[in-house]
Design a protein that fits this description.
Number of strands: 10
Largest sheet: 7 strands, mixed
Shape: elongated
Order of helices and strands: EEEEHEEHEHEHHEE
Strand content: 25-35%
Length: about 220
Amino acid sequence: MLTIYILALDIVIFTIYNNELCVVFSKVNWKNSIGYTIPGWIVAKWYDLEQNFDDILKRKTWITWVYKEQLYTFWNPSRDPRWHVVAVCYYALVSVDSFLTKVDFTKVDILKYSDLENLNILYDHKSIIDYAKQRLEWKLEYTNIAKEILPKHFKMSSLQKVYEIITGKAYDKRNFQKKIFSLNIISETWELDRTSNRPAKLYKFDDEKLKIIEQNSMV
């Protein structure tokens, strides 16, 4: 018996908005109600996965560039009640400044990760998002991936906030700073953030590309 598969590419897009970890969704009509899916589409022939990713991202969100990483291939025959869809999944990170200037809000909704349990997330997309969230947490432990969410220059408190939002943990300020400095991944810009009455030092990541940190854990 010949089995026909449909190959799709789905994307979990994370950003931090209003101090919350958020996910980008496409909103669809589903059985007389509103449902949410992560952006995705059928893989086009004669194009590689990177090209398919870029095309789907732009068509579905109007974002033209993000940090992306292949996540996993989901192939359970029952994941989509219509067809047997095999999905190559990615997760992507985008800073909120970049997100707000590029995204087309007629195409997508941005929803808090903490609210997803109460929403009608279709297919197995909630499981895919949870898997991507776990991967992101692991990446924080041994890479400088936080640079993909922060602006180019940032306060130490902003860096700590990113870790706390993604992991759901609170970190002691002094211990966090001591650990971060020991990793030699950031440096001072010798500039100050003057948006408050107490100017704060601004920092930057030393490496523009993703860097593996040769220690057990960042925090």
